[in-house]
């Protein structure tokens, strides 16, 4: 496989003014004044994309009841379809933003997300809802990585960890608010209300984004996107997930399952080959030759296998085994993302001092303790404060440390001109893990009784094994980059 060389940044410091200080660019003062508002507006987009999954997770049991005749495996495409489209849009979003401008592509993604939310709210059938979720997922896949790239525009390289911590904390706030808010909306009104909620928030974020985000500075040589490459990427992500979900009905070794899986793997290989040779690929795969970026993204993929399936399994366990209502389950799950809100900014400020390796190893160990506690102590008799609550605190803390450390490590070697693509690669790695993890969880739970405690214990032990894999990958990350004084 051939890769194009990475562009090099110009050597040497910026020119100095006669007083020995770097010259102040035109408009720098006004840009500095608009920084808090611009960051806040982008964080609103991050919040919107992050809260969606949590709202849908809590509403999922109500959706099952409102669409009689549809089983869990079939309706799982409400979140699987979203996740697949989300993941498929990440890499094109980064490549298009580096080519056409981050602001322009971000605004397009936010517009698509808001419009698709309205379609979800009025969907008359499971098929219509799933179709709207596919479009909504594409919009969310554009928002998330570009939001990080836009936020990092306002931070120096030395402050990059702080920017990543802010991005991660915003997602954590959304995740913290999602379960309780979703449970309340579903209990008081209807699951469709969660999609109506997106529209006013999204329109406000759009209006202020247009006013505050800096204009794009892109060259005139931008090429059209590689549409055949996009089709291959969608097949590479969607077909393996489709094979996993359908294996519940078709059988694990059925020819249809094996064919879908094989075609998905061939699509992935063809996409990689095309991206390495196309003059204007969707993503510059040369970035994966950077050793720290490759190792961090591998660990991020394993993290994605765990964290999204963990939150859905928690809600289904509380409603299925402990007979919690959706509102109570949402409120009960809130401590996990709430602790992420507290830990993520702290981790962002600390990551350059401790190093990516130490923080990632700590996070993996804490997340391991969280799922092992559930596997050993969670039973049929509700024991929230002694078992579930401490597990949520450990899990939320571990996830915050891991996301911050791995996101920062994945970007540490990325040239500034490829920052949008670098962030898209990191979020894609996590989202690909989410696709496989959620699909596998749906198959496992669809084949088990609703209150099957043994099935949940097997899920948690599997997650513990994946934490061990993350630990092995984290040992290959760099130590502290520099000493701090």
UniProtKB/TrEMBL annotation:
Residues 1-31 are annotated as: Disordered. One of its GO terms (molecular function) is transmembrane transporter activity. It comes from the Bacteria. GO terms for cellular component: plasma membrane. Residues 38-482 form the Major facilitator superfamily (MFS) profile domain. Pfam families: MFS_1. The chain crosses the membrane at residues 37-60, 72-93, 105-124, 130-152, 164-189, 195-214, 226-245, 257-275, 296-322, 328-347, 359-378, 384-411, 423-446, 458-477. The keyword Membrane applies. It is a multi-pass membrane protein. Residues 7-26 have a biased composition (Pro residues). It is found in: Cell membrane. Keywords: Membrane, Transmembrane, Transmembrane helix. SUPFAM superfamilies: MFS general substrate transporter (SSF103473). PANTHER family: CONSERVED TWO-DOMAIN MEMBRANE PROTEIN-RELATED (PTHR42718:SF48), MAJOR FACILITATOR SUPERFAMILY MULTIDRUG TRANSPORTER MFSC (PTHR42718). This is MFS transporter. It comes from Actinomadura barringtoniae. The lineage of its organism: Bacteria, Bacillati, Actinomycetota, Actinomycetes, Streptosporangiales.
């Amino acid at each position: 496989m051939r890769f194009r060389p990475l562009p090099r940044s110009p050597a040497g410091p910026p020119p100095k003014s006669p007083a020995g200080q770097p010259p102040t660019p035109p408009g720098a003062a006004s840009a500095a004044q608009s920084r808090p508002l611009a960051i806040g507006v982008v964080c609103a987009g991050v919040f919107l994309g992050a809260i969606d999954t949590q709202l849908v997770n809590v509403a999922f049991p109500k959706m099952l009841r409102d669409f009689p005749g549809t089983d869990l495996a079939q309706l799982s495409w409400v979140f699987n379809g979203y996740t697949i489209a989300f993941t498929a849009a990440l890499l094109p979003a980064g490549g298009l933003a580096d080519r056409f401008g981050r602001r322009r592509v971000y605004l397009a993604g936010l517009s698509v997300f808001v419009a698709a939310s309205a379609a979800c709210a009025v969907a008359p059938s499971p098929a219509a809802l799933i179709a709207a979720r596919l479009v909504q997922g594409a919009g969310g896949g554009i928002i998330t990585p570009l939001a990080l790239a836009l936020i990092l525009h306002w931070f120096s390289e030395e402050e990059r960890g702080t920017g990543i911590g802010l991005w991660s904390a915003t997602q954590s706030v959304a995740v913290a608010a999602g379960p309780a808010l979703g449970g309340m909306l579903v209990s008081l009104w209807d699951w469709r209300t969660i999609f109506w909620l997106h529209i006013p928030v999204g329109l406000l974020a759009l209006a202020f984004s247009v006013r505050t985000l800096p204009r794009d500075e892109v060259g005139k040589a931008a090429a059209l996107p590689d549409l055949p490459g996009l089709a291959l990427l969608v097949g590479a992500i969607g077909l393996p997930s489709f094979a996993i979900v359908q294996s519940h009905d078709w059988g694990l070794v059925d020819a249809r399952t094996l064919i879908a899986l094989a075609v998905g793997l061939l699509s992935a290989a063809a996409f990689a080959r095309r991206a390495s040779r196309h003059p204007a690929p969707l993503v510059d795969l040369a970035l994966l030759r950077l050793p720290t970026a490759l190792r961090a993204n591998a660990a991020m993929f394993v993290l994605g296998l765990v964290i999204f399936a963990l939150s859905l399994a928690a809600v289904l366990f509380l409603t299925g085994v402990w007979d919690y209502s959706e509102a109570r389950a949402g409120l009960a799950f809130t401590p996990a993302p709430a602790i992420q809100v507290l830990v993520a900014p702290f981790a962002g400020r600390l990551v350059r001092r401790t190093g990516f390796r130490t923080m990632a190893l700590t996070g993996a160990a804490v997340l391991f303790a969280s799922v092992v506690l559930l596997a050993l102590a969670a039973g049929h008799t509700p024991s929230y404060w002694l078992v579930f609550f401490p597990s949520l605190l450990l899990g939320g803390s571990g996830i915050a440390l891991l996301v911050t450390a791995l996101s920062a490590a994945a970007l540490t070697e990325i040239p500034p001109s490829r920052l949008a693509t670098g962030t898209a690669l990191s979020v894609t790695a996590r989202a690909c893990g989410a696709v496989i993890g959620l699909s596998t969880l749906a198959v496992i739970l669809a084949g088990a009784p609703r209150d099957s405690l043994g099935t949940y214990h097997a899920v948690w032990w599997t997650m513990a094994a994946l934490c061990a894999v993350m630990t092995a990958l984290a040992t290959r990350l760099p130590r502290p980059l520099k000493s701090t004084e």
